[in-house]
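Forwarding these from the shared drive since the link keeps breaking.
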Amino acid sequence: MRTTEGRKRVAFSLAPGPWPPAPVFRAPGPRPLAPAIHRRGSALLAVLWLSAALAAIGFALANTVRSEIDRTSTEVDGLRSYYLATGAIHRAYIELLWSINAVGPRTIPQGSTVIDYVFPSGNARVEFIPEAAKLDVNFTPVQDLFRLAVALGIEPERASEIAAAIDDWRRPATQGSLFDAYYLSLTPSFQARHASIQEIEELLLVKGITPDIFYGTYVPAADGAEGAPPQGPRLVPRGGLADCLSVYGSRDRVDANTASPAVLAAIGLSPFAISALVERRRIAPFTDQQLFAFLQSIGVSNPRLRVEGNSILTLRATARLRLPNGQLSDLKRTVAAQVKYMRAGMDPPIHILRWYDTAWSD
């Protein structure tokens, strides 16, 4: 009985009933699966953004370094080209001196307007521009100044004002002039010299003369015009007053081999005569006898032309470096020097009057 009752009690105690649920004890472990995936996705995005940022910084740095290398390389090539052009000028004026004093054949033929030098590091072209190819700015008549300005593409009304302003600047005036009020109204104000022009750059102060008119510029070329490219931008160079006037220029006759078409127009040559003269001198420079015969053949009488004619000239050198593949670089550097040859027996025989570290050339 005891055994049976005891068994019944045990069975009764294990039977289901309204007993409170037993507490569930769980061992410590990882969090649920969904929050873990979310954390790993955020970390991946952060790594991707950081990688993109580092890549952008690296690309910008590489681009900057490359740009600096290219800029430095260009500056080095420009400096090398400068010294190449400088050396060509020194060689040219020495060879020209030898040619003038030589008893035998000239190193540089008479009437030459250009000479090409081939150096191990590159090529240089030197242009000879006698001051006799330009007009004397202090003595050129007003009507010649007007024709010169019109030939340079300036409107006739403005050309007339510029010619009058140049004449006023170089002419003495005890009681002032009509242009003085204009110069005094500028900021800063100044007074006209009313004396001979000492440096050709003084023309930049004269009323109506802008840098484009003084130095020259590029203008659109008409269809079929000389120098106009068959395709692409149609721009051709147009000279300025600096190419046509000089304080050392000619008072009467200009050099036929190097005078610009605008100067030829200023001294009274017709467009036909100018075109024929420019075309002929491209073949070979004139000598005195050839020039006289040519002018007679085109019907030009009493010309204000000559060959060379004074001891001052400008040498303008344009240099291009030679690349490792043997071709010439597209980078050009042009320098110029205004040289005066002294009389025989004087020491030194050559004087450099002006030096231009940067010059303009076609």
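-- next protein --
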Amino acid sequence: MPSGEHESPLELAEQNPEVLVWLLAELFDVPVADYHHARPQPTEVRKLVPSTYRADGMMLLCDAADQSLLSVVLEVQRDWDPGKRWTWKIYLAHLETDTEVNAALLVYCPSSAVARRYRDMFASEGVSLHLHPFIFTPADVPLVVDVVRARAAPAVALFSVLCHGGDADVESAFPALAEALRTLGPRKASLYHEIVLAGLPSVRWERWERYMSTILGRPYRSKMLREAFEEGEATGAAASAVRTVLTVLEERGVEVPTTVRAQIEACKDLDQLDVWLRRAVTATKIDDVTRE
């Protein structure tokens, strides 16, 4: 089952493909033409013989005339899977055939040991079709602690926090993270804030909320739930939080069965609603939200 730590880098890259361009250019010296806009590509890859493969994320970069420039596959690989030697080739062959432009494969491995195994696997492919994945780890992504840099490239600053969420020194990036969110503006900041929180270990987002409470001089929670608290008493806040959870699920296209909807609507526990909301931001199916 996809976790927030798995889904958040994908969601962030989909919301702001500048992250993909930065990774290719800064980490792997791959030049990317100036692009005007980007659009997500379907991640399902079907074959004539019924079977479907699903990539984590696919994005197409286009110029101002909507002509394709470069397609990108982004995979988050937390564990070792030797079968990726074959399925990754399917992803790229499908995407290049569909878009008729070159495709780059970016693979994020939170574990350096897992990354090393994948690099070794693709070091020599013999007579096989050669695949050159761009594999990177948190060690390859510098933690953005400089406020000026965060202001200039807010999406990169947010991505760096996701990559280093488990590090002991990630809290040194909190001022830069706050500036990155401020730079994005209130409308975008709400979405990006929830993406980042969903991708952080719980101990980190708790410390982030304490940090923000200190800065603001008042109790701080995720923006959507804070608005629910400000509506009034606990009963009203819970009702508003319920609506927020269901709205986020609807916006993400997640089907909510009648029994689960009733469970969510009956909930008065703000902490439980907070957990569901964090999960809903990156959920692809309802089990991602209501799992124990």
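The chain has a mean pLDDT of 83. Residues 4-140 form one domain.

- D.
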